[in-house]
Amino acid sequence: MTDPRPDVDLTAVRTHLTSALLSDALDAQGLRHQCLGTGLALLDPTRVLAGYAFPVTIQRVYDVPAEPFRGLVAALDAIGRDEVFVTATHRAADIAVWGELLSTVCLARGAAGAITDGLVRDTRAVRELGFPVVSAGTIPYDSMGRHEIVAHGVPCVVDGVRIERGDLIVADSDGVVVVPQAVAAGTVRAALDKRRGENAFRRAVAEGMSATEAFATFGVL
Ligand SMILES: O=C([O-])CC(=O)C(=O)O
Ligand SMILES: [Mg+2]
After folding, report:
1. What is the spatial distance between Cα 199 and Cα 184, in angstroms, rounded to a whole number?
2. Helix axis angle, 19-27 relative to 184-206, nearest 10°?
3. Ligand 2 centroid distance, CA of 185 (Å)
4. Ligand minimally distant from the alpha carbon of residue 120
5. Is the beta carbon of 142 within 6 A of some atom in ligand 1?
6. Which atom of ligand 1 lies at the shortest distance from residue 72's CA?
7. Model-level pTM greater than 0.90?
8. Is the residue at 217 inside a domain?
9. Does 99 belong to an annotated binding site?
10. 47 in helix, strand or coil?
């Protein structure tokens, strides 16, 4: 399996960018539906999660299979440095798809974080590990006998947003934005430009410039 990834500086993304700036840069290209829905939050909202999507496909099961977690361990053994484990559950409300041990494996492999539209568990331990995780909430239920991972590295859809392996995915206290790999480098450049414009706008209005003049001068808001 190839390990596609766009040519972006993840440290610059984590240090200088936000999901909002990236969303603005996507809007400017006509890509106006690249954010996941509301209610998804980082366990530690002071962090920024930025990396390359590593989506998995899950299947609901209603019994413990003969070989439980076969697809899960294969996916964990395949995730690479700076990748983000993405589990689309269609907002399943009765499974924890992520926890402490999965976080520990991913940390050891250099992965950047995990994102799900479902639920997670072991949250105190995951917070202590410092591994960035986004979810819709928590529940103690194990995934064993409730879902199995049946593929990894293939596209998924979360809240109507298609996510492919290698897409840039960024989460912060505002939410989650998905930047398609093909436009990632240009979008990061545009978002850094917008940040410079916002910095100039902020300084000018703090010093008394009117909003009308600041918008006319810097072209951002
Ligand atoms: O079993 C699971 O699916 C999640 C879990 O508890 C862990 O990673 O520790
Ligand atoms: Mg656990």
Report:
1. 22
2. 110
3. 36
4. 1
5. yes
6. 3
7. yes
8. no
9. yes
10. coil
For residue 199, being part of any structural domain is answered with: no
Residue with tokens 């436009």: 183
The tens digit of pLDDT for each residue in 146-202 reads 999 999 999 999 999 999 999 999 999 999 999 999 999 999 999 999 999 999 999
The domain tally of the chain equals 1
**Residue 114: inside a domain, yes or no?**
yes
Range of the domain at 125: 10-180
- Per-residue pLDDT of 59-95, as tens digits, reads 999 999 999 999 999 999 999 999 999 999 999 999 9
β-strand partners of 206 = none
109 is in an annotated binding site: no
Residue 108 DSSP SS3: helix
Distance 86 CA to ligand 1 centre (A): 15
CATH code, domain with 34: 3.50.30.40
Phi, psi of 97 (to 5 degrees): -95, -5
The amino acid present at 15, given as its one-letter code, is T
Structure tokens at 46: 């002071």
Domain-located, residue 207: no
User: How far apart are the C-alpha atoms of 81 and 167, rounded to whole Å?
Assistant: 14
ipTM exceeds 0.90: yes
